[in-house]
């Protein structure tokens, strides 16, 4: 089975078109002003129209209130909302009820206990995005190019549907897939030449590496499909 790949932090037509041409299953747009990948909702909406229906459109937000979500959802018309802040299970339920969209809840992982936080969102979040904890002093909850110890996922219940994220790149994705059996991966800074600047050659190299790993038959475990 093909690995789902989400290319996140897209801001230009060239990068978006290349992501979809390479077979990205998901495209991510960041709505977080402190991020070098931040994009205005209207600009993201115009870009996303080029690829609607060919890859899922993901709005990445961080503890956004309903006013911000109203603007983002209305301009972008995303397929999925990625909540990348400290949103509680109750907040995830509210967002799902208000917007009627699948929610991918990001959780940051550093130690075994961090995986336990999944339990509170089971049956609420449609999918999880498992990212590394930000380094000390970072302004960003994600997009830091930092990995967590993928072996921690050995303890994860096989039914948990997740995207593997954090510090992935063409050099380490083969090992990440072989170790985790992840069926879906998410990448941002690993395909950039500078913060917020997507590099088409790095994107090509990343997809090549994913396809090579697939050809080698990395263990795609039995995680369930969520629609997110
Ligand atoms: O990328 C950002 O700037 C960002 C800002 C706010 C919330 C989430 C963000 N990024 C997410 O983090 C992952 C991992 O990034 P990386 O591959 O380690 O650079 C990224 O794909 C987004 O989902």
Automatic annotation (TrEMBL):
Q: What class of enzyme is it?
A: isomerase
Which molecular function term from Gene Ontology is one that the record holds? phosphoribosylanthranilate isomerase activity
Superkingdom of this entry's organism?
Answer: Bacteria
Which gene is annotated as encoding this protein in its UniProt record?
A: trpF
The alphabetized UniProt keywords are: Amino-acid biosynthesis, Aromatic amino acid biosynthesis, Isomerase, Tryptophan biosynthesis
- Provide the reaction this enzyme catalyses: N-(5-phospho-beta-D-ribosyl)anthranilate = 1-(2-carboxyphenylamino)-1-deoxy-D-ribulose 5-phosphate
Residue ranges annotated as coiled coil are: none
Pathways involved: Amino-acid biosynthesis; L-tryptophan biosynthesis; L-tryptophan from chorismate: step 3/5
Q: Which PANTHER family match?
A: N-(5'-PHOSPHORIBOSYL)ANTHRANILATE ISOMERASE (PTHR42894:SF1)
* Name of the protein in question: N-(5'-phosphoribosyl)anthranilate isomerase
Gene3D superfamilies xref list: Aldolase class I (3.20.20.70)
InterPro entries, per this entry? Aldolase_TIM, PRAI_dom, RibuloseP-bd_barrel, TrpF_fam
């Amino acid at each position: 089975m093909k690995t789902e790949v989400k290319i996140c932090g897209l801001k230009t037509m060239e990068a978006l078109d290349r992501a979809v041409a390479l077979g990205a299953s998901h495209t991510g747009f960041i709505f977080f002003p402190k991020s070098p990948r931040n994009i205005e909702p209207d600009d993201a909406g115009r870009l996303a129209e080029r690829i609607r229906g060919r890859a899922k459109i993901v709005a990445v937000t961080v503890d956004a209130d309903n006013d911000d979500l109203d603007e983002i959802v209305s301009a972008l018309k995303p397929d999925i909302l990625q909540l990348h802040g400290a949103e509680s299970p109750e907040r995830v339920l509210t967002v799902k009820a208000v917007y009627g969209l699948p929610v991918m809840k990001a959780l940051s992982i550093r130690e075994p206990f961090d995986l336990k936080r999944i339990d509170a969102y089971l049956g609420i979040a449609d999918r999880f995005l498992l990212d590394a904890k930000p380094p000390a002093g970072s302004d960003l909850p994600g997009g830091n190019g930092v990995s967590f110890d993928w072996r921690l996922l050995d303890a994860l219940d096989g039914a948990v549907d997740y995207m593997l994220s954090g510090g992935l790149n063409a050099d380490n994705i083969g090992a990440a897939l072989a170790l985790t059996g992840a069926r879906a991966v998410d990448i941002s800074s690993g395909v950039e030449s500078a913060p917020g600047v997507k590099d088409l050659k790095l994107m090509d190299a990343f997809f090549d590496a994913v396809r090579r790993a697939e050809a080698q038959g990395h263990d795609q475990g039995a995680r369930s499909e969520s629609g997110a």
